[in-house]
């Protein structure tokens, strides 16, 4: 078991690592040559075009040493931007995302003060551990383990459990209310946005002798005759999009070879046509690419004609726009036809949030896809260790020798041998865990969600579940998840929290170290942006010709809700579970929340470029996961105390999860609709105001709002075409559809 | 254990009882004097005014002996009425209710044929029981008990479980579809009904300096300006209704005494003023009642003034009517305000279905009421035996002697003593079980449901749960429910179905007897209507003066969904559980369903007078309970087989409840909305048709549709005022608000 000394050493190590990252960042960000890596958001907004604000144009390094003295001055910069400006600058999603960190501070700071003043003395002034003569550390002396069985002191923990619950719920309620109000005022302050007037209609039934477009028009002219304005049908342009993407890729290569040739005109660049350019016949690279691109262009033209003319490529899906927000709100919230699985309506996502590929999935297959993915996720969570172990068993010396005997002499070199034996199995697992978010995203895409925001939300909840089972439970109870699963199925339900509960206090030091490595150093590493920095400079050297190329080379990324949010939630879980068991852990959590808040606020302001604006639609998920963490902590405390022979406290503790659940149901009823529906009163209000202030030609505005990007994009450029027609968008971000995150 | 001989004797006894009831009914119904007891529906519809269709007016007994020969001719009469006429005659609710019995026949007849041809031979051709040398009966030889452990023959049962599931689900789906379509065509064929145009708005927020009526009008004029027509606010007239009811009661007594006096003018009727007329000063009954009624009349006038003028008596609830069904459908299905707990809208129940008393319950208390009643129901279900046992312990000889020593000589008479000892404890339980539906109804009323139909539906589901726990589980595993509860909490989850599963085959004879007593004799007794018969004749002798009095004296009752439906569901449960375990039970179930179908069809046509028309809104509940019975049967089979060492079958069986659940989710999505929402297309369709065919002045029609009955009822008569204004109701039934069921 770790002693306080061990913790201090680990803390020192991690603090030093974090400081190194921060100092490196402070130095690198001052170099004008890195300006587009560390401040891309300002370039995207068009507020900065060169890094020349202080230095000269051609300057690559900042030689003004005075500026290095203020190496931490990004912190006040990051913190001073007021919230309204932040929303305007980075969008509501980002502003609300930052509030999650703030929520962590708000919840855990008072809990920290409370538990340290009350529980730590209560725990410390016992001598159970000394009497038991087992090995123990000073950390355990501060934890609940130091209290003797059936001691009345447990009532302090029970009372504190109530304090934690009440405080957490109170904070959650205030936050839910604030976010809901922020969402409404954002909706009210937004100017025209096509999604306010538009409803996504799915599963349009086929009618004989009528095109989908005619069916949709007839239906809405009849059933919403006062409100219907126009509609756009959706084509299955997946093949076309694929061709366009391929052409774009080839074009990039062509550019690369052309630059290469222009730099060294004496030698025509050559390439091999086979896989990854490794084998195959050698050809002139520029000529080869030109012919390929021409062929693709012809294919694209043909496919484009095919998609637009072939009625079979029209999907039974349409974006229907209404004259008023009221009309759209009514249509989105009502059941249209007798058969509730036809003419399904929902509030349309904003155009850049639409995940076009999935609009072509037939509606009947969605349920099957959902079930298949549910089962797949279950097996992924509980049995992922089986294939990993299999690969690990292959990735040993004998396995490699068998598969590739020609490598034998290399492998038998001692250094390489020990490397393979020592690191390879670990690396296999590491690679899997790195790929996990991508696997989860693929699973969500397969499930058929229609907007990127919903894809990310689904990924986030699955990622959290995976972390809960495999990192939290897996660390607390050693053993693979599927072994636990079978053990739990054969235990009475009341035994499960006991088993986990007993193990909880013993794992405190493990989680403290986890917080420092993942939470402190990891977060500090985030600000350094090492990978984008390297990629940017590589691209800058090899590809960039024009300013536009340079713009494309900078890679702002987005906040990554699908991986970032589960990480924060994991700290909420650890914090709530250990708040009463080992309060010593709380300051580590607090430092994480504080550090992450500052760093991510800086990143949101200067770096990230959101792919979409869902108007904080993720908040119900955030709220629900904190609630679930609270309930888990309560159940585990109950299990722990019941093994401590504090049976009298069980009924009192039993009320905790019930009350929390009740609170959750209340919040769900009170606040969740704000994130799903557009209330009639709000819509009418906004309609009326707008009619008075700035009437406009909506039909022209909405006619082409929801056109598949490949049709907007006639030149097959990857320039952004998603801006609003009148340019009145609040968050004038651009979408780079070739981002790895978007693929 | 019962032998086949025992079963035959019990069957003979019950068949004879049922036959006696049926013959008694056949004779009694032919007497003209009983005509209003056995055919009240025709009087209510106005299709019959006297029983003189064949005999003479004054004839009390039917002396035409030829008619007795055809004593079973009510059966073809009951069966020949076609469904469309039945809906017109008795309403959609009744017609659909009868389909539940039909569904029973449709599900169990093929299952019966299958299991008898396959499972009975499979079970019979073993000799496990003979070898085991335990006592067993021939019935057990036919059941699954006769198959040796780990026999491959169990695969026959597993396969049959799939057949049962597929067949039951298929029938359920067809039925759900049929009922949904029946509901829609009923909606389309109905003429004007106020509820088609009306939305019930709850939780209207208070606005300063504005009455509720003004607030409602402003809100809907702004937010639904094209559709809003008119509204009616709801007053808290509960006190007024109470006074009116009391006055009516006194009036009845006055009538009674006046008749008594008129029959015997020599003696003024006297009465005592105390409790139940048992003590107090003796006064002239007519004079006394006249003064009391006058006093009440004054109070009523005052309270009426108070209710109409006092703004505090106006509840924040309103019935808002729209110009079109489309407008109402839109308003009912959308969220009105930013705060989703304000301006709650739902499709209004029809006027006679409104449970006015609960409209005065403040909305905030509803959740608390729901929780309180949930907890109360839990304790009622699991711990009701405790107070019963307490009362039983009091209701013994010593207890009575202690409380009432003056009864000592009476009690000590041997006959009375043995009666008290033998019957009293049983009677206490019996009384409780008889009161149970009333207790459940009171609980539902306390919960604050706003329509009688929903009250009955909630009662039905609770009554079914109670029966499941206490009759089904209670019979299968001996012991009080709360003992089982604690045993189950300390068992692993997988053990519970095993414990119940083992006990199932042993209880087959018990349930066969139960079906015969409750299902055969009980149902046959229903048609005799002994209680209404006696009451009618008593009233006829003592009270009836005019034709109108006679009409009031006949007591048609209604189908009693809250007790009747759980009874049917209980047979579905037993049938599905035993279909695979002891197929011998199935014919008994089939006879029940057949007999009950004929008898209830007769009653629906000739007797019952529905209190409301919910347009088969109860079907999702019916469907859900059959599904739950199916899942229970599957889980129990799994438990049973796992104790039979047929472990290989477990994974195959595990798929059964999962598939059934999937089917349920599918049905919920596909059909349930038809019972909750009015699809926009249907509403628009009906609106358009009506505008072309028969435009009418809706405002006048709707203005007073939802007025509290006491305001319609100015003369405080108990005549019916719920008819539609234009008399165009499809089911022109009348409501007698003094029915015991309605109180």
Explain this structure.
- Two copies of one chain form a homodimer.
- The first copy, chain A, is mainly alpha-helical.
- Chain A folds into three domains: 368 residues, no CATH class; 204 residues, no CATH class; 77 residues, no CATH class.
- In chain A, the strands form two sheets. Chain A has a four-stranded antiparallel sheet.
- The two termini of chain A are 45 Å apart.
- The C terminus of chain A is likely disordered.
- Chains A and B meet through helix 12, helix 15, helix 30 and helix 31 of A and helix 11, helix 14, helix 29 and helix 30 of B.
Greatest interface and its participating residue counts: A-B, 40 and 40 residues
Number of E strands of chain A: 6
Structural shape of chain A = globular
What's the oligomerization state?
A: homodimer
Average pLDDT of chain A, to the nearest integer? 82
Number of discrete helical segments of chain A: 33
Rg calc of chain A: 29 Å
Gap from first CA to last CA of chain A: 45 Å
- List the strand order in the largest sheet of chain A: 2-5-1-6
